[in-house]
């Protein structure tokens, strides 16, 4: 079993950094109360981490080629741990958001190193097994986050969801130093700083515009200005990548149908499968009255279903080309979200159970195959770059999913409350509801009106969630159909990979080459 210690070290870091994407979900109402934060601040607490993670993955991957991926992984673990401590000590929402950005920097350094470290540590069938386990950990981590977050928030405090990273990071550092081989940097040429700045500006401006759209409206000057900035930054990124000698993204890869299909799958899977859990958790706690741990356990069936299917992926799909488990998995993710539209004003948490299970089956089918298939669809000299693009797509998809679904959620609640209530300040009431402060709204009205307002609260949330689940469901189904249409047979699944010749095994996996 000693040979699996490197995999354990890599999976510890992967689990920690991906859990922190969603671990805050069930803690949001407690955070809002303790830090007196708005709905927009809650979105940024969730989104800032995923956004920075997505924006930096490709450029940090290129840096790993120069410094060595083991060294970069260790730096990422240390930065992540320090940032987690800052999150736990944060006195206000602004400090917490800034510390979450620092977590994203450390997470990017870790995540971009994982595939190269796995490739260097394992060969042949062991490599397929390692990628399968890593894929299962990656797929289940975002779903396990709410459960772990619920336990820590309920039993200790919301700040404990960040402190728990400290011993995990320390263990991962020790195991990495002792059991992962030290690789030497080998990159040549200059880093594509201009491309990195342009891509960061594009993703940041786009997410900012989408989040602010919930508060200011889509037609506001601020939102339109930032959407314009996003478009200009994207155009600038494309122009830079066409001109530089060592691009972050070789645009010729976009002529590869299989790679495009799998990148789209990576972009959309987290948006369809996990982004809506943020608003599901707010509903379960602020409207249904579940504790954080109860809300986390209510979402747990998604994680359990994902783990069961991930562990049996090779046996279930051993004769199928990779587009089948990925495409079918995304369709199941979408179908699960659509099932969750059954939530009504009188529903309990059990109304989400069928949808969560079906979505979990889809996550378990798609995640373990997606990365390996993407790497197998491109030339070997572009494997590192492909890994960075797919990981970027996953995290950017989650950030965009939080922003888009949050805007839809807040606007639907705002419209419903304005049209169906006689509250003195419907806008303030709607903002409090979407921010997880339903009890504050009820406490602000006379006792003889509370039953009426409570009915309004249940109906407003059901209306908001219905549209959120509908959009997530359609996204998942469309993504699955795109994969089935675009991905070709040439991309191998992890269990299909053959042992490489010794020379190929010794060669490093570059993120970018001259």
TrEMBL record:
Transmembrane helix among keywords: yes
Region (Disordered): 494-514
Stored PROSITE patterns: MFS
Transmembrane spans: 42-60, 72-91, 97-118, 130-148, 160-180, 192-211, 223-245, 257-279, 291-312, 324-343, 355-375, 396-413, 468-487
Keywords: Antibiotic resistance, Cell membrane, Membrane, Transmembrane, Transmembrane helix, Transport
Cellular compartments annotated: Cell membrane
Main localization of the protein described in the UniProt heading: membrane
Residue ranges of domain Major facilitator superfamily (MFS) profile in the record: 6-491
Xref: SUPFAM superfamilies: MFS general substrate transporter (SSF103473)
Annotated membrane topology: Multi-pass membrane protein
The UniProt record lists the keyword Iron: no
A Pfam family per the record: MFS_1
NCBIfam families cross-referenced by the UniProt entry: efflux_EmrB
Stored PANTHER family: EXPORT PROTEIN (PTHR42718:SF49), MAJOR FACILITATOR SUPERFAMILY MULTIDRUG TRANSPORTER MFSC (PTHR42718)
Record's protein name: MFS transporter
Source organism per UniProt: Streptacidiphilus cavernicola
